[in-house]
Amino acid sequence: MSLGCSLGVACLAAVLTIPAILSAHDGRSAARAPQAVPEVMHARSAADTLFLTRQDPYGAQPFTRVLVARPVAGPAPVPPGLERLPAPGEVYVSPRLREVLAAEPGLTGLLPGRVTGTIGAAGLAGPDELYAYLGQTRAGIPRDARPLASFGSSHSPSPAVDASTLDVLRFTLACLVLLPLAVFLSVCARLSAESRSRRLASLRLLGLSIKGTLRVNAVETVAAALLGALLGIGAYLLVNEVVARVGLPGLRWYAADGRPAAPTLTACLLGCPALAWFVGRHHAREAALSPLSVRRSAQRTPPRPYGLLLLLPGLGVITGYCVLGALGRTPAEGPADAVLVPAAVLLTGAGLVLSLGPITSWLARRIAGRTQSLPLTLAMRRNEVEPGSSLRVVTGLVLLVYAASLTQGVLVELSQISRPTSPTQEYRVTLGDVTPEQRARMARVDGVRAQALTAESWIPDLSNPAPRINAVVATCAQLAAFADLAPGCVDGRVQRLTDPDTSENLDARPGAAFPFLLRPSAGPSPARAEKLSLTLPHDRLTLHARQPSALTSADVRIPPSLLPAGTLPAKGDLLVVTGSEPTSVRTALNGIGTLAPTADVEAVGVNVEALQQITVIKSLLASGMVLGLVIGVAAFVVSVADRAMERRGQVTALALLGARPATLRTVQCVQVLLPLGIGLAAALVAGRLAESSYLITGGGDVFWDADGLPLLLASALGVLVVAGLAALPLVRRHVDPEHIGRD
Description:
The structure is a single chain. By secondary structure, this protein is α+β, with helices and mostly antiparallel strands. Helix content is 52%, strand content 14%. It contains 18 helices and 19 strands. It has helices at 2-16, 18-31, 95-103, 163-205, 210-246, 262-289, 291-296, 308-326, 335-370, 374-385, 387-418, 436-442, 476-482, 582-595, 608-646, 648-656, 661-698, 709-727; strands spanning 34-36, 50-58, 61-69, 90-93, 114-118, 130-135, 146-151, 424-430, 450-456, 470-473, 483-485, 495-498, 513-520, 530-535, 540-545, 556-558, 567-569, 572-579, 601-603. A 9-stranded mixed β-sheet has the order 11-15-12-16-10-9-18-8-19, sandwiched between helices. It is elongated and about 105 Å long.
C-alpha cells in the first residue's frame, strides 16, 4: 500500500506541477516585458530611454534581442535580472546564449558590441532561453525605437503555451495520467483491503464492534497511505532537481518552479489517503457486517451492465462526428463542440472500463458452454463467476491504449501547424533598414538564391479609400526563384500577375494607372520625392506562389530596369529566398543578421513562438505518455500480486484434484488474455473514433490518421504477450495444503 501510494503520488505531483511550471515561466516573461510610452501623450526627449525588440528564429526556438539607448541624463528603468542598462557597445546575454555564441561564432554578428554581463534568473523565462540586451547610442538605434516607460506587464507577451491550447493539454494529460492513476491507487487500496479482510473479520468475531472494526481499518489505511504520500513527495522532489537541470525538449525550468505548492501538497497528502480510505472502507464494512463470509468465500453478485449507460452515449456522439466527417459535412466549430466532444471522450473512457466486467462475463459464459477444452472451460467459468479479479489487471493498460490514441490526435493536429510544405523559405526586410551595400552583400550570403523588391502604390491622402495595388520589382529569373511561373515571362516588360490559388485584386485592371513613390537608394531623401506612374497592361503572367509567400498579394511585376537609376521604392520591402532546410534557414538568418544586425528580419510564414509552443506541448505529452506507461505497468504488477494472493487457495485445490501444472498455467494465461484482448480491441476502436472526432472538430485538414495505428497495434500485441508471460509465475509447483486448510 505504501509503495504503491508513493509511486502514484509522485506521478500525481508531476502532473499537478506542470501548470505551476508554465505559470512561473509566463510570470518572469511578463515581468521583463518593456512597456512603451503612449505616443499620443508624450513627445520624445533626451530624457527618454529608447528601446526596440527584435526576435529571430533559432531553429524552433526564439532568439530575442532588446536594443536600448540610455537617456542623456537621469535615471533609466532597469529590467529584472540586470543591475543597470547596458551602455553603448555593451551586451548582456543569457547563460544559454553565451554557450551558443561559443559554439557558433557566426551569431556574434547579431550582437554588435562586447559581451560584458550575464542576465540573472529573474530576467529569464527559463534556463535555456536565448535573450540579450544590446546597448546602443541614441543616434545608432533604429528610427522605429520607442520611448520606454517601464518593464513589466500583467500578461506574458510570449506564453509557454497558449491559453486555449493549455486547456487541451490539461484534458489530454488528465485522460493520459490521472484516469490510470485513479485506477492504480484504487487497486493498491483494494489489495491492502483484501489482505486485511480476514484479520478484521477475526477482530469482529472476538467481540469488537462494527464501528471499532471500521476505525481500526481507517487508521491502518490512512497511516499506510500517508506514509506512501510522504515517500512519493520526497521522490518527486529528488526527480525534479535532476530533470530541471536536464530539461525536456523545448522546455527547461528552474528547480524552484517545479517544487509543489500548497494546493498540490494538499491534493497529494490528503487526496491519496482519502481515496485509500474510501476504497478500503467497502471491504472493511463487508468484513465487519458478515465476518463468516470472508472465510467461507460467499457467492459474489454478478456484474451489472451499468457501464453501458456511459459507453453507448459516448460512442454515439463520437461516431456521429465521424459520420459527419466521412460525409464531408464537418460541423462548424462552436461552444457546443468544445463541450460535447470532451464529455463524449470521458464518457467513452469511463464506460469502456465499467463495461468490461459484464461483457467479459457474458462472453466467458458463451465460450464455456461451447468449448470442450478443460483449461479453457476452467478459465472461462472463473471469468464468468468473478470477472472483476481479471479486470483489475487489465484496466490500467486498457486506459493507457485509449488515451494514447487520443494523444495521437492532438499530435496530428499540431503537426499540421508545424509541418513544412514549401521547398523554399522567404525573408522580408524593410528597405529603409538596409543600405545598397548591405543588399548587395546579402545576395552573396550562403544559400541565398535570389532577391526581389516589393512596393505599394502611393496615395496622397491615407484617409482617402483610393484603389491601391502591390508590385514586385524583379527579373523573370528572380521571380522564378520565388514562385512557379507559367510560360510567357518577358524581361523588360511590365506584366500583370495572377495566382489561381488566391483571389484577384479587382482594382488591378488593364488600363488603370497607379503612381509609385521613389527615393534615392543612398543618401538623404530629397525635399521633393520622385514618382513613377505605371499603367497596367493587358499582358498577364500566371504564377503559383509557394505558400507561405509574400508574393500572394503582388498584382504586377515591374522590371528593375524601369526604375530610374539610383532610386528605390519609398515604401517597400526586400525579399530574399533560400531553401527550406533547417541548416539553410539558420545560415541565411545568421548571414542577414550579421550584415544588418538592427534590421527587422521576418522569416515569412515561420511563427517561431508557435513552433516553440508546439515543441513544449509535444514534450509534455511525451512525458505524460511515460508517466501513463509507468502507472499502467505498476498497476499490472500490483494486480498480479493481488491475483496471486487471491488465487492461492483455488490453485492449490485444483492441484490436489490432479490438475497438471501446464493446465493451470494455461488457465491463468487465458483468464488474463481474454479480458485484456477484449479491452485492448475496444480501446483501439474507441480511441480511433475519439481521435477522429477530435480532429474533425479541430478544423484541420486531416480527419483520418493512420500513421500511429501500426505502432498502437504493435504495442497492443506486445502487451498481450507480456501479460500472458507474466501470468505464468502465478502457478507454483509446490502445493501448500495450508492455503485451503479449513476451507
